[in-house]
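Lecture 7, part B: from sequences to assemblies.

Below are the input chains for today's worked example.
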Amino acid sequence: MAKVNTAWDQVSGNIFKTWLIMFFFSLFTVGVIYILAQGFGYGQMGSLSIVGFALIMAGVMNFASYFWSDKIVLGISGAKPIQQKDNPQVYRLVENLCIAAGLPTPKIYIIDDSATNAFATGRDPKHSAICFTSGILDKLNKVELEGVTAHELSHVGNRDTLVMSVVSVLVGMIALLSDFFLRSLWFGGRGNNDRDNNNTVFLIIALVSAILAPIVATLIQLAVSRRREFLADASGVLLTRYPEGLINALLKISKDKEPLEAANRGTAHLYIVNPFKGQQAGAFLAGLFNTHPPIEARVKALKEMEGKI
Amino acid sequence: MESYIVIGIVVLTFLWLLVTYNSLVTLRNRVKEAWSQIDVQLKRRSSLIPNLVEAVKGYAKHEKSVFENVTRARSALVGASNLHEKAAANDMLTGALKSLFAVAEDYPDLKASENFKQLQEEISDTETKVAASRQFYNTNVLDLNNSLETVPSSWIGQMFGFTKEEFFKASEEEKADVKVKF
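Predicted structure of the full complex, as structure tokens:
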């Protein structure tokens, strides 16, 4: 059977891969918890309460950034809200794509910056916001801007703020646990000194895991982020039915080397392309640490959809 | 022991039936909602027409046949009751408006008028909105039809008499059904 890679195939494929990553992430989390809990040597009840404590803390720390995601990000980036009369073209473009996507029209913001970028955020479609830089509005034509807007609205429709928040909670929990463990070694306040060799070996394993686990967790988080970018590209194409628009937009944006001053590490995954452009290297290792897949890979996936929608 | 297994299977089957039935109802309601969204946009479109006709009449009194066609297409759209009629009447109106805007080209004063420009913009925006809501409707119809055609949800669909919906699409033949002379 000939492989037909339509936008629908790419959407379901990317959703499946997200679940697959999340499944392995859960297994990994359980493994790390097990090893560290053994390492703590508090006995089962004690370690479990530490794990519970780490989970609650990570949850609390991430809850605010999830619940007020729109306000926080828009506040940091210095975005200004616009009304229909301020920029009717952009307003209508967003409004019409929302009708096609069956989403409520988000609040629309503009960052006064000549860099070309855009992002969407918000805990659910009703509280969503979409933001453009003034640079992207100037430099892209209508179909390209539609491609970008459809990609951003797809992030809203696919609940990517929620997906990334759940991942952040897990990453945060692993980081906290590792941190607790390393500190507890430092202070050595563990009471029972009658440890045998077997326990020492386990302690070393736990030590290595405590150092490596947060890095691995971050890498998994970035893999999820890149998967969601591919997904938003594919769902976006289902909205505009015109991959060419997003392809041209991505090529135009990637040629523009100006970084966006308003972006920071915490908000990078929200943008249509990585806002720290200078640091984007093609090398495999650098690729692992990127929030976004390389432009070439995204364009290739989009080209496969051409004429098959 | 065995009776527990039997009870377990019965309970699970019942739960599956419940979930599938509810998801089919949800999909059907989404189609209905999407349909009413098209209606909203079509109404919005037809409500703009009288203003447009008035604006053009002020400058181009003698183009009677063009106004008549637009007005007729509009009332066909307002009077249309089912999907086919609406799709066809909407396409008719698009054609009639095209000739109206073509006529407007001959009247520089009209073209320069702020009111006319604004109406023209509104109407082209509404056309995009109609197309967008049509696309959303078709996406929902696709979801419902997929569920009604794939096993096992198709069994539940048959059991409770769910029917497939039609896509919003006007064929040439259907357009000919609506009697509007040009």
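Note for the exam: The first strand of chain A starts at residue 80 and ends at 82. Keep this in mind when comparing with the next example.
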